Amino acid sequence: MQTTHTSWRSRFGSKMALLHSLLCILCLVGPVLSQDMPYEEYMAQIQACPKECHCPPNFPRAVYCDNKGLKSIPKIPPHTWYLYLQNNLIEVLSADALHNATSLRWLNLNRNKITSEGLEEGVLNAMSHLAHLYMDDNLLSSVPSPLPASLEHLSLSRNRISKIPAGVFNGLDKLNLLDLQGNKLMDDAVTEVSLKGLNNLIQINLAKNQLSSMPLGLPTTTTQLFLDGNNIEKIPAGYFKGLPKVAFLRLNHNKLGSNGVPKNVFNVSSILDLQLSHNQLTEVPLISSGLEHLHLDHNNIKSKSYSQSTYCFFLIAMTHLSCRFMSVSFMHLLNRIVYQRRIL
Ligand SMILES: *[C@@H]1O[C@H](CO)[C@@H](O)[C@H](O)[C@H]1NC(C)=O
Ligand SMILES: *[C@@H]1O[C@H](CO)[C@@H](O)[C@H](O)[C@H]1NC(C)=O
């Protein structure tokens, strides 16, 4: 009896032990399953979480230090992929604090006080997996250099950037989005030399800078070109021949007059969306038949000039209006009418 009891107990005990270890394995496997992270790394990561930050146990590769009034970057744990530091008072991107943060994929530093002088030597370059870098609303005066070749998105809007160091984009073959809006870039800063190396760029945003001419040296892969809010007065003839993929073109709020728009410059089959609102055009530019959206409100277009345009024939065919009836105020309706071309 005693032996049976013992054996029952030991069998029960071993079953309990098995169950217990199963549970333990499950709790160890949990984080591994959640973010593909080995247990030792998981523990090291959670233990190294800076006291100012939040490190969610079920999302251990993310470290949240945003909106904390931080004046400097805390020591970042080594296995961090996603680091959120936006909305703080950080002035310096310190190589020491980021020493172990070499696995970062995503770094958000928006709305801080980082200056170009505050970028310590090689600090970004050391992050050899970094794909997304956000540094909007800081105090940078130059595009940070050097940058890691892994970058896909670089957002530097609303800084004080007036310089793009020559060759800074060399080797950045993965970069497809570059946002430089709201800076102080002048014509001599955006050149073939400064943009060299962007072999896969899709979108470039240069809105709200101080450009007075169309930027030179844009990559031939450019699909979306945003230049609103500059002082651009003219477009060189054949400008878009160098940009065979351009489809979305925004030039609202510039100083384009019809004299500055050569006859066929927008007659380009790749362009789908052309925005020319708030300029000084006196004639409707010639467009290609493939255009889907045309924005022309707030120009000085006089009704007579419509008869010159293919575009006008389209409107007549569609709306049974005569060109004579079109006035500047009618221009507000044009977007909608052109848009309907696709639906009709
Ligand atoms: C980097 O990691 C090492 C080893 O885990 C640790 O001793 C050191 O304090 C860390 N440094 C920083 C700045 O986090
Ligand atoms: C617009 O471009 C097309 C294609 O290049 C060309 O065939 C056509 O003649 C151009 N339109 C005018 C009015 O020049």
How would you sum up this structure in a few lines?
With 344 residues, this protein is α/β, with parallel strands linked by helices.
Give me the secondary-structure topology.
Blueprint: H1 2-35, H2 39-47, E1 62-64, E2 82-84, E3 106-108, E4 132-134, E5 153-155, E6 177-179, H3 192-195, E7 203-205, E8 224-226, E9 248-250, E10 273-275, E11 293-295, H4 310-319, H5 331-343
Parallel strand pairs: 1-2, 2-3, 3-4, 4-5, 5-6, 6-7, 7-8, 8-9, 9-10, 10-11
The chain binds 2-acetamido-2-deoxy-beta-D-glucopyranose (2 copies).
Verbal overview:
The protein is an alpha/beta fold and 344 residues long. The chain has one domain (61-343): Alpha-Beta Horseshoe (Leucine-rich repeat, LRR (right-handed beta-alpha superhelix)). The chain contains 5 helices and 11 strands; from the N terminus they run H-H-E-E-E-E-E-E-H-E-E-E-E-E-H-H. It has helices spanning 2-35, 39-47, 192-195, 310-319, 331-343; strands spanning 62-64, 82-84, 106-108, 132-134, 153-155, 177-179, 203-205, 224-226, 248-250, 273-275, 293-295. The chain has an 11-stranded parallel beta sheet. The longest helix is centred in the first third of the chain and has 34 residues, at 2-35. 33% of the residues are buried. Bound molecules: 2-acetamido-2-deoxy-beta-D-glucopyranose (2 copies). The site of one 2-acetamido-2-deoxy-beta-D-glucopyranose has 3 residues, from loops. InterPro entries: Leu-rich_rpt, Leu-rich_rpt_typical-subtyp, LRR_dom_sf, LRRNT, SLRP. Residues 1-34 form the signal peptide. Residues 48-82 form the LRRNT domain.
